[in-house]
């Protein structure tokens, strides 16, 4: 028995065939790969995205009473420079085109007496800002992997809570 396609079914069939020709599986796979290969910098929204996150993040550090003692004495120009240095750093380490214009993490933080708890406060602000800017989990994880790599260079007094009374006096 011969089957006759209704007009609607025929249109649907033509549409499906047209789509299959327009987007062959290989092209779709290549497109998916291109998306996956985007640098973290690009996925963070490029310079604009990085800049907005760092501005908000730095302002929170300056105003958080738990750690603001570290930033006392920084005038507006020094704060702006602190932000710019952090933008360039994040841009650079995430695959962006910026140059690092700051000192090494060690040189910049050595002697400040930053504790593990201080570091966690700062990391917490970064997490909050990334969440508020709706940066997806995957990108947050990649960024944190990089930032946490700097932790040993930044924390001077690694584990205050484990200091026993016999431990050497802190500086
Ligand atoms: C979360 C990881 C951190 C990153 C990526 C980071 C990044 C930076 C950068 C790029 C600079 C500029 C260095 C320069 O002037 O050449 C800087 C300076 C500074 N950072 Fe951090 N920092 C981090 C954690 C912290 C923490 C936990 C504190 C203290 C709570 C802190 C306090 C400071 C201060 C006070 C300066 C100014 C130092 C100076 O100019 O003498 N940072 N940081």
> Any idea of the CATH class of the domain at 45-160?
Mainly Alpha
State the end-to-end distance. 94 Å
Shape: elongated
Structural category: mainly alpha
**What helical percentage do the residues reach?**
55-70%
Quote the CATH topology of the domain at 45-160: Globin-like
SS element count, helices: 9
State the order of secondary-structure elements, H for helix, E for strand: HHHHHHHHH
Ligand list = protoporphyrin IX containing FE
Question: Could you walk me through the main structural features you see in this protein, from its secondary elements to its overall organization?
Answer:
With 171 residues, the chain is an all-alpha fold. It has a domain at 45-160: Orthogonal Bundle (Globin-like). Helix content is 63%, strand content 0%. Helix 4 packs across helix 5 and helix 4 (46-63) crosses helix 7. The N and C termini lie far apart (94 Å). Protoporphyrin IX containing FE (HEM) binds at residues 67, 70-71, 82, 85-86, 89, 102-103, 108-109, 112, 114, 118-119, 122-123, 147, 150, 154.
């Amino acid at each position: 028995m011969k089957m006759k396609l209704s007009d609607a079914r025929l249109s649907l069939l033509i549409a499906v065939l047209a789509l299959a020709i327009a987007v062959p599986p290989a092209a779709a796979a290549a497109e998916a790969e291109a998306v996956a290969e985007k640098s973290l910098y690009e996925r963070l929204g490029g310079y604009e995205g990085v800049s907005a996150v760092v501005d908000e993040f730095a302002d929170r550090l300056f105003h958080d009473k738990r750690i603001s003692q570290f930033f006392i004495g920084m005038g507006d120009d020094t704060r702006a420079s602190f932000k710019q240095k952090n933008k360039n750093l994040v841009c650079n380490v995430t695959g962006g085109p910026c140059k690092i214009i700051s000192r090494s993490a060690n040189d910049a933080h050595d002697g400040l007496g930053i504790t593990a708890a201080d570091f966690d406060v700062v990391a917490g602000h970064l997490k909050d800002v990334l969440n508020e800017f709706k940066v997806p989990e995957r990108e947050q994880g990649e960024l944190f992997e990089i930032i946490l790599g700097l932790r040993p260079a930044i924390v001077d007094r690694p584990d205050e809570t484990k200091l026993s009374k016999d431990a050497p006096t802190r500086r």
